[in-house]
Amino acid sequence: MNVKKPVMIAALTMAALCPPAFATSPTPPPASAEPGYEQQAANAAQLLHKAIAAYREEGNAAFARFSRQGEFIDGDQYVYVVDENGYMLASGGPSAALIGRDITPLLDPELKEAFNSALQAPESDTVSSAEYRWMNWNDGKVERKQVFYQKVDGKTFAVGYYLPRSSEAAAKALLDDAAAAIADDAEATIARINRLDPEFNRDDLYVFAVDMDSMSMVAHGYSRRLLNIHFPDLKNRDGLRVGQQILDAVEAGEDSVTYTWPNPVTERPEEKKTLIRKVGNYLVAVGYYQEPVTE
Questions:
Q1: What are the b/e assignments for 201-240, b being 16+ CB within 10 Å?
Q2: pLDDT digits (tens, 9 = 90+) for 35-74
Q3: For the segment 195-243, what is each residue's pLDDT rounded down to a tens digit?
Q4: Could you tell me how far CA 96 lies from the centroid of its own chain?
Q5: I need a surface site. Which of 141, 142, 144, 225 has the fewest CB within 10 A?
Q6: How far apart are CA 163 and CA 166, in angstroms?
Q7: Measured distance CA(161)–CA(103) in Å, rounded
């Protein structure tokens, strides 16, 4: 699935409940998480289970516990609850400002229809999962967010986690698409990459291309200031000539290079593995960012 660049919608908190994006299972298995996010998925599933257990024991009194700092907030993961009429009942995150309010008027017509349909769905013992976008209160960025949710007593309980880094599989898929498009019509594809066509610009993934005859950067899906730069001279913030490193890898027949580069989502320098491919006289590349290693 191609994921477009973020567009902030007032009540995107609830986009998690839209039917087109969800899948259900009795318990959300970490194995179904996007690669690299298995632990976050497991933590979110556990927090949701804990919240529903607390509600079943305490009833609505548990909502106050969900909405304050403490046991139902784990880093950037928190519980939120919405009733069948669209009122926010509890939230341990930024949407706490909406507690007690009907959020449906904040939704655009298409989202409102899907939201109302989801709220009126019958209850089930299954847990659903969905992907949407929301502001990450830790870094102030609008990022992809995966959510687990379940309906109990007419109330929808949800817990999610952020996905600021795409997987290697997603990077390879984008490289395959870009390489095929350049092979078919290089000029048109380069123009599309440079105007940030979402087909070639997916969250923290973007395409760049180098003319191997002129050694110029002819396409870049994130920073236009890098266009027409002499590629062998391209350096990162540490002064490493990553352009030459990539060219050396191409010459050696390698298909990837690892170096440090700013992540367009987190805006922090992170380790990036860039997949590279020759297509005619063009070098086409897509990189994905690695989860920082914590001691």
A1: bbbbbbbbbbbbeeeebbbbbbeeeeeebebeebebeeee
A2: 667 888 999 999 999 999 999 999 999 999 999 888 999 8
A3: 999 899 887 899 999 999 999 999 999 998 999 999 999 999 999 999 9
A4: 22
A5: 225
A6: 7
A7: 21
d(CA 179, CA 189): 9
Tell me the pTM.
0.64
Specify whether the CB–CB gap between 44 and 160 falls below 8 A: yes
Q: Which residues contact 191 (CB under 8 A, 6 or more apart)?
A: none
